[in-house]
Amino acid sequence: MPLNLASSPAAAAAAKVCAGVRASPRHLLPRALDHQSRRVLSLSSSSSAGRAAGVRAMAAAEAGASTATQAKSSGVKQALISLSDKTDLAYLGNGLQALGFSIISTGGTASSLEAAGVNVTKVEQITNFPEMLDGRVKTLHPSVHGGILARRDQEHHLKALNEHGIGTFDVVVVNLYPFYNKVTSGVISFEDGIENIDIGGPTMIRAAAKNHKDVLVVVDHEDYPALLEYLQGKQDDQQFRKMLAWKAFQHVASYDSAVSEWLWKQSNKGDVFPPNFTVPLSLKSTLRYGENPHQKAAFYGDKSLSVVNAGGIATAIQHHGKEMSYNNYLDANAAWNCVSEFENPTCVVVKHTNPCGVASRQDILEAYRLAVKGDPVSAFGGIVAFNTTIDEDLAKEIREFRSPTDGQTRMFYEIVVAPGYTEKGLEILKGKSKTLRILEAKRSGKGMLSLRQVSGGWLAQESDDLTPEDITFTTVSKRAPQDSELSDAKFAWLCVKHVKSNAIVIAKNNCMLGMGSGQPNRLESLRIAFRKAGEEAKGAALASDAFFPFAWNDAVEEACQNGIGVIAEPSGSMRDGDAVDCCNKYGVSLLFTGVRHFRH
Questions:
Q1: Residue 235's pLDDT is what?
Q2: Quick check: is 497 catalytic?
């Protein structure tokens, strides 16, 4: 910007006047200073009108400089304030004024402060330079940044300020253009998105945060009370200053991550994995403990643009119950992701992130009973999820339902999650237990990037969004499945997708009868599933998350011997022919899906 100012005699004169101006603002101001700079640049015209305008501008600047000089000589501290979000601005301005601060501000912020009865000095009176380039240049000026960055314990810094007539800023209060809200509010043009990228604001915030020993920087209106309380005190608490500086840098980092994410998507339509990216996380709550009581834990919300309005457990509303724990979040997430896969009214019961009961019925009460019946022992103390609104009748059934194991013990659950509740349904469900966590969630979005941490790095992959409608179930056996068997196979396939590998699911009539999970040996998972399904397994469908490595004397033959009607597996084994021969021997339908569903 100084190079631009020196491009003509008038501009050089304006720059010289600006150099003699001193300002001492105390809060962060991102935008208005740049606007004034634009106007001064426009004075570079060599015409007589331009020269006359330049004289008038310099006269006004001298008046402002005089005001600033008076404030400096009298030892009055100054606060610089420039805000897009003006929440509690009047409270802040009046509070600072009551503490004897002179307030420097810009544009709409200055107007709002004046309307609240606060005396304000316009920032152009400090810079002697009007904003320019449609507001792109306002605060990028030595009279602003020199006053922010100068160290008060360095004599040569203060000498330099004095030589140029620049005063120090003690408080800087700034928040940024609402880029995040703009680009997530709907369709926005590329040009409009670019214009909502703040430049002056982040620059001032970073400058003030770097010099936090001498400058208090505030980016969050919730910190205004703490700021005013701190300023009323007589001790200089450097820890408070450091915390504000940390928050300021984090604020800018999150802002920049949103800009970076948006620009990547604008310029790389087909590439899912950028060479570098940042995930902005925001603390939502500290948890009682982690996966185990000796581990500390916290829950963070993802502020990435890609997950805005994506739904899921992270944005769920808790209507009732004990605070969520680390394991509660994991289990609730597993239950919600599973039940969200189904279009028909469905109930899913989860224990330790594995679905132990799944049933779909037009009568959701029947679906609930069948889901619990699938494994009532595991369901006790588990998570129950529905993809339909919980009304009065369903709430009563959840509250009063007795365990199928003895017909007497009332079922206990950690969490109930659903997309909505009627007023009466919620009231009844709250009466089941004081600790029962009742969550209301939006259906999880598709097309998300899935991240998982490993020591020293992260794995990233596309989310597994495939449904039975997205794939082809190819019959490779002599006997083709009946329509009901094919329907059962698709239901089992959708269930097994959410069971930990090695995973086997046995299902019939849109109801999971048994499942085996997490075994290193697929044959052992199969045996567990049959043990749970019992006699109902005869004529049912069996789905495997991956191919069976062998057929004879292995899982395929054992499944056939137990009366399974149809088997769905990905295929891909070198022994596929053996599996086909085995199914043909027992008259079982064998379907290849071509899709594997590992889940670790």
A1: 67
A2: no
Whether the CB-CB separation of 61 and 17 falls below 8 Å is answered with yes
User: 477 is written with which tokens?
Assistant: 């056996």
Number of alpha carbons in the 13 Å side-chain half-sphere of residue 563: 11
Is residue 210 annotated as a catalytic residue, yes or no? yes
Backbone angles phi, psi at 22, to 5 degrees: -125, 140
Contact between residue 143 and residue 18 where contact means Cβ atoms under 8 Å apart? yes
DSSP conformation class of 413: E
Q: Give SS3 for 102.
A: strand
Among residues 322, 352, 396, 442, the one annotated as catalytic is: 352
Instruction: Say if residue 157 is exposed, middle or buried (CB neighbours under 10 Å; 0-12, 13-18, 19+).
Output: middle
For 19, left (φ over 0), alpha (ψ -120 to 50), or beta?
alpha
SS3 letters for 221-248?
HHHHHHHHHHHHCCCCCHHHHHHHHHHH
State which residues of the chain have pLDDT below 50.
1-74, 552-553
Give me the residue spans of the domains in the chain. 78-268, 311-440, 474-592
Q: Which of 182, 210, 247, 322 is catalytic?
A: 210
Choices 3.40.140.20, 3.40.50.360, 2.60.40.200, 3.40.190.10: CATH for 311-440: 3.40.140.20
Q: Where is 506: in which H helix or E strand?
A: strand 504-507
How far is the C-alpha of 372 from the C-alpha of 535, rounded, in Å?
18
pLDDT at 37: 34
Pick the CATH number of 78-268 from 2.60.120.920, 3.40.50.2000, 3.40.50.1380, 3.30.450.40: 3.40.50.1380
pLDDT value for 195: 80
Residue 365 class from Cβ within 10 Å (0-12 exposed, 13-18 middle, 19+ buried)? middle
Instruction: Calculate Rg over the CA atoms of the chain.
Output: 33
- The two beta strands, 102-105 and 120-122, are parallel
Tokens representing 145 are 């940044």
pTM: 0.80
For tokens 């349904």, name the residue: 425
